[in-house]
Amino acid sequence: MSIDNLKSLLPDYAKDTRLNLGSVTTTSSLTDQQLWGAVLACALATRSARVIAEVSQDAAGHLSAEAFTAAKAAASIMAMNNVYYRATHLIGDETYATLPARLRMTVIGNPGVDKTDFELWCLAVSAINGCGRCLESHEQVLRGAGMPREHVQEALRVAAVINATAATLEAEAALTAV
């Protein structure tokens, strides 16, 4: 179980996704922890059992137990936050932005890994979940911490490719089940 296995499962029409999957996981300028935490958190955000199983095997070989748990925490907390903050933004009444969320989010302040790495994973998950408010917030924190835009972009590329992989494999499974 691995990224290579995922690549082999992608159909010929998804050649670009296959090549991008290889590229984002082998030519990254992110640290190993940043990259594989983003890959794992994004896999979890896709909710694709196949992608999660394959990615988690590779990620376990690149992440400490603490980082593995923190990547899972990033996916979990953003599953909640992305819904809440996207909804309050989409309502269009900025008063909601001034109200306290009253949602527990202590893991963001103490994720068990470097906070910048955790913020990067939260940004990548927010891209998959489509929350503009969270994307803006996490990007500002990352840029404030000195992370170059190229690294932020790289996390977005990881999110896009992992999401495309999951979407393609899930679609293929549905088509063959018909």
UniProtKB/TrEMBL annotation:
The active site is at C131, C134. SUPFAM superfamilies: AhpD-like (SSF69118). PANTHER family: ALKYL HYDROPEROXIDE REDUCTASE AHPD. The gene is ahpD. It comes from Nonomuraea spiralis. Belongs to the AhpD family. Disulfide bonds join C131-C134. Residues 97-176 form the Carboxymuconolactone decarboxylase-like domain. It catalyses: N(6)-[(R)-dihydrolipoyl]-L-lysyl-[lipoyl-carrier protein] + a hydroperoxide = N(6)-[(R)-lipoyl]-L-lysyl-[lipoyl-carrier protein] + an alcohol + H2O. This is Alkyl hydroperoxide reductase AhpD. Its EC number is 1.11.1.28.
